[in-house]
Amino acid sequence: MKFIVWLICVLVFVLLLLVLALANTQSATLNFLAGYAWQAPLILIGLAFFVVGLLAGLVSAVPAMVRLRMENGRLKRELRVARKTPVVREEPPMPPLI
User: Fold this and answer.
1) Of 20, 24, 71, 90, which is the most exposed, with the fewest CB atoms less than 10 Å away?
2) Three-class SS of residue 40?
3) Quick one: which of 41, 52, 45, 47 has its CA closest to 14?
4) Are 46 and 24 within 8 A, CB to CB?
């Protein structure tokens, strides 16, 4: 079921991107520092910024993913050790006799 939901989301995204691309075919100029200019269709510039933002987000998530994987491995090792050690049950203390 998750696969179908993801497939529908991707199809809607591609359809909206196609509509956006067809509506923004005019040329735009992007001026950088040092006098460099890039002239391209507006949708191409927007798509380039989308891809750069996506890559920046993925790169910024890598340290957290590595930290979580390391913690997950540590917790699995602790669980394995805890399952191997026998459980010692202590009887509760008797109430005092009056």
Assistant:
1) 90
2) strand
3) 47
4) yes
